[in-house]
Design a protein that fits this description.
By secondary structure, the protein is an alpha+beta fold. It is built from 13 helices and 21 strands. The protein binds flavin-adenine dinucleotide.
Length: 388
């Protein structure tokens, strides 16, 4: 069987690429080893799919080459994706910080992509495990279901996280076989695990959320932190995990909008326990665990000014050194990927192998939390689909 384009991976970027290429009249076959396509899209945003963000710009992405994503993002904007949703009468809603969610659940987005692919005469084959791919005059793709030929191939296999949603290392391995370099890979947008001593102090807070400003190196993430039975999760933890490396400290400002020293000094003559005073600002269970763990469970009127200054400093700079992260099992994305120096930023074609293309998370482009990763999948898939 001969087709113009074979896309390996029927996820967000693969189907976007398929639809764009199909509309240009290219015959397209999508091969996916899973039993259904777009499993991550279905799970995304807790089933509500945070599908794009109104503030998309290259500054929301991290990559060894921060300029690489600019061209694809300029060619396919959040407005383009919202127009597509509108064309399919899919209701969407804007939440904080420009985040767009699908009002009726992520399955609407998957159905939309499948409809678009059908209209563009794209063929999709699931349960299609690939045995090998060779480049001769054309690409020869050997699968368990037979051998196919195509003039162009697109690697859209995504990253390493959530194996049960179809993830595999295949995209990275295939890229390497074709001579591409892979940058260092790490799980990102992932919860942290407590150190042993912090686990003993804070595991009982599982389910509690606090608003804070979490600092890592020079970056500050003002958002919420969710305590789990293993460590910390939530937007602030996820964002900092993109930059965090083993052994790094995180610093939490527990009262980002309050002058902690002023608050303590104003109450220094009261018999009130510190945890009770703090519970006007933070959940009571957290205040109790935190003051206990730090030796601050006392009445304010029993503290010297020096002690109050020390407490104020601890409230502003609670230092956590996580034992690690929950890894690819719980990471929303893989940081790093196929080195973008060897890929055209306009067409997504390999600079090493003619007619080989990439799209989505398999490349070294990682978005922040907030719909940026799916937007990268749409934009890079669109760019590849317009040229493949
Ligand atoms: C739980 C969860 C929630 C998320 N929520 C959001 C969110 O709300 N907003 C957001 O922007 N991002 C979110 N993300 C990230 C986002 O889903 C991904 O970045 C995006 O799906 C990447 O698109 P992709 O096409 O590159 O890869 P994927 O969508 O992962 O698709 C890759 C496809 O390749 C297939 N594949 C893998 N290996 C092979 C192989 N050997 N042979 C054939 N096929 C193969 C897989 O089965 C899969 O269908 C979330 C991720 C997770 C895990």
């Amino acid at each position: 069987m001969k087709t113009d384009v074979i896309i390996i991976g029927g996820g967000a970027s693969g189907l976007m690429c398929a639809k764009a290429a199909g509309r240009r009249g290219r015959s397209v076959l999508v091969l996916d080893h899973a039993d259904r396509v777009c499993k991550k899209v279905l799970a995304s945003g807790g089933g509500r799919c945070n599908c794009t963000n109104l503030t998309v710009s290259h500054q929301n992405y991290t990559s060894a080459n921060p300029h690489f994503c600019k061209s694809a993002l300029a060619a396919y904007s959040p407005a383009d994706f919202l127009r597509l949703l509108d064309e399919h009468s899919i209701r969407w809603q804007e939440e904080d910080e420009g985040r767009i969610f699908c009002a009726d659940g992520s399955s609407k987005i998957v159905n939309m992509l499948l409809e678009e692919c059908r209209a563009a005469r794209v063929k999709i084959s699931v349960n299609s495990e690939i045995i090998k791919i060779k480049k001769k005059e054309n690409f020869v793709v050997v699968t368990k279901r037979g051998t196919m030929e195509c003039s162009s191939i697109v690697i859209a296999c995504g990253g390493l996280s959530y194996k049960d949603l179809g993830a595999s290392a295949y995209g990275f391995n295939l890229a390497e076989d074709f001579g591409h370099r892979i940058t260092e890979l790490r799980p990102a947008l992932v919860p942290f695990i407590w150190s042993k001593s912090d686990l003993a102090s804070y595991s009982r807070l599982s389910g509690v959320t606090i608003k804070c400003a979490l600092k890592h190196a020079k970056r500050v993430f003002k958002s919420s932190l969710l305590f789990t039975h293993k460590g910390i999760s939530g937007p602030a933890a996820f964002q900092s995990s993109i930059y965090w490396k083993d052994g790094d400290a995180l610093t939490v400002n527990l009262l980002p909008d309050t002058d902690a020293l002023e608050l303590l000094m104003q109450n220094r003559h009261r018999k009130v326990m510190l945890q009770n005073l703090l519970s006007s600002y933070l959940p009571a269970s957290f205040c109790e665990a935190w003051t206990e763990a730090n030796g601050f469970s006392r009445q304010l009127n029993a503290c010297s000014e020096k002690e109050l200054r020390r407490i104020a400093d601890a409230l502003k700079n609670w230092t956590i050194v996580p034992h690690g992260t929950e890894g690819y099992r719980k990471a929303e994305v893989t940081l790093g990927g196929v080195n973008t120096d060897d890929i055209s930023s306009k067409t997504m074609e390999s600079k090493i192998v003619k007619d080989l293309y990439f799209c989505g998370e398999v490349m070294d482009v990682t978005g922040m939390l907030g719909g940026y990763n799916l937007h990268w999948a749409w934009a890079s898939g669109h760019a590849a689909g317009e040229h493949v």
